[in-house]
Amino acid sequence: MNILVLNASPKGKNSATVHTALYLQALHPEHSFTVLHVGQRIRGCEKDFAPVRAKLEQAELILFSYPVYTFIAPYQLHRLFELIKADGVDLTGKFASQITTSKHFYDVTAHRYVEENCCDLGMKVIRGLSADMDDLLTEEGRRQARNFFDHLMFSCVHGPFVVPPVQAPAREKAVYRSQLPQCPKRGDKDVVIVTNCAPEDENLQAMITDFRSALPFESRVVNIREFPFSGGCLGCFGCAVTGKCVHRDGFDTFLRETIQTAQGFVYAFTISDHYTHSSFKCFDDRQFCNGHRTVTHGTPIAYLISGDYRYESNLRMIVEGRAEVGGNYLAGVATDEGDTAADIRALADNLTLAMEKKLTRPANFYGVGGMKIFRDLIYVMQGLMKADHKFYKKHGIYDFPQKQKKRIWQMRLVGTLLAIPSVQKAAKGKMTEAMVAPYQKVVDQAKEANTP
Q: CA 242 → CA 77, 141, 378, 384, 412, distances in Å?
């Protein structure tokens, strides 16, 4: 089979991820492998897409190889999908799969993003391999890679293939025009609206205008399409110690002094390719100059999204997951799918309440699970990621369960006692009552404090 490996890592041949594909190539000389380092050469692909088009047309199976960056694929792969779709190359019926490496931090949303875009192109998509960064260095990891390839070849003949996502019904997009009146403004809060709004994004422009009108605070608009990015994140870890990006376009300073100083964040974009224009992903990835530090923890956020948001389940997971991991109170999402003006007014009210009351909510699975992955990663890599390690120590993120020695001994004592038949008999029917007693005490204290 003619297999095209699209290596979307910005590290090119020095990518850890692509070495899994090279390992499989070494094991299977009966197949023809071609590796294109499209991530490292994305600017060249923009100037001349013809070489990539030719390889895509020749391929029977396209294997996307990339590291997971900030919940999805790297900016370079987002840009590649834009180029493929704009070129119009016909990939209908070709097989597609993917290989990623990460610490499994939202690898599921990255895989679904690639699957959805491949389904858009009419490809037969086969579930990919989500490997740990170090899996290729272990026998078990190599065995799993071999199993993946065996299953991939089998599936090309027999299936099953990934079920395409439900598409929004074909309809003419309703035009939204600004209609909310200006409300009086206060200057005690600063809200920044980060967008990648293009001139043709008329609905999004109107939504931003109305949101600013409904918000009782002064707000600023930062259009990241206008920022002179010299490139996407290189994954070089040059910022791991110093916090300074190797790119010399000044983005790290711009981020910290122009955006992260606000008391409220609003992200505004138009949906495209199951996320938004790649400029926003470049913005996402370049924030790695902050490492894995949740430096905006506690700052409420809101979203203005133009497009069929209700049909983008993966995007909804990303929006919620980002807020949860970052410790940001998600005030809500307003779209142009229904009563847009009412949704925008409600969103402005919710963000205002969150800012004034400094609202927080306990992290759900998205937040707890994501931060535990980071916690363990930074603890092991503290020698390299010194700024992250210092931040995690300062903010008590190293909450390893084994430190709860008192709790562990309490549970051992209870377990030992309950192993005695006479204690079991005496405790029968009273366990739940004993467990809820501390909670009832809190309720009783609240009643006492609020009784005249």
A: 27, 33, 16, 10, 45
Other CB atoms closer than 10 Å to residue 360's CB: what's the count? 13
CA distance 336 to 204: 8
How many C-beta atoms lie closer than 10 Å to residue 376's C-beta?
A: 13
Query: Can you list the alpha helix ranges (DSSP code H) found in 287-404?
Result: 313-326, 340-357, 365-380, 386-394
Integer Cα distance of 36 and 332 in angstroms: 41
Closest CA to 4 of 70, 46, 51, 74: 51
Closest listed residue to residue 372, CA positions, set 402, 398, 404, 394? 398
H/E stretch holding 80 reads helix 75-87
- Secondary structure class of 29 (helix, strand, coil): coil
Q: Is the pTM of this model over 0.90?
A: yes
C-alpha distances (whole Å) from 325 to each of 156, 270, 375, 385 are: 37, 23, 12, 19
Q: What 3-state DSSP class applies to 303?
A: strand
Mean pLDDT by 10 residues, the chain (452 residues): 98 96 97 98 97 98 97 97 98 98 96 98 98 96 98 96 91 91 94 97 98 97 96 88 86 94 97 97 94 92 97 98 97 96 98 97 95 93 89 90 79 85 80 82 89 84
What is the distance between the alpha carbons of residues 1 and 31, in angstroms, rounded to a whole number?
5
Q: Which of 355, 346, 258, 256 is nearest to 299 (CA)?
A: 355
User: Strands, E, within 37-135: which ranges?
Assistant: 61-67, 95-102, 124-125, 129-132
Report CA torsion sign: 306, 308, 309, 310. Answer: positive
∠ CA 101-118-34, rounded to 5°: 60
- Residues 267/219, Cβ–Cβ less than 8 Å: no
**Spatial distance between the Cα atoms of 297 and 245, rounded to a whole number of angstroms:** 22
Pairwise CA distance, residues 266 & 252, whole Å? 19
Short-list 67, 10, 74, CA closest to 40: 10
Instruction: Give the containing element (helix H, strand E) for 292.
Output: none
Read out DSSP for 100-119?
EEESSSSHHHHHHHHHHHHH
- pLDDT at res. 435: 79
What pLDDT score does 262 carry? 96
CA distances from 261 to 70, 111, 256 (A): 21, 33, 7
Question: Which pLDDT score is estimated for 287?
Answer: 94
Q: Give the Cα-Cα-Cα angle 426, 430, 434 (nearest 5 degrees).
A: 120
Distance CA 136, CA 101 (A): 10
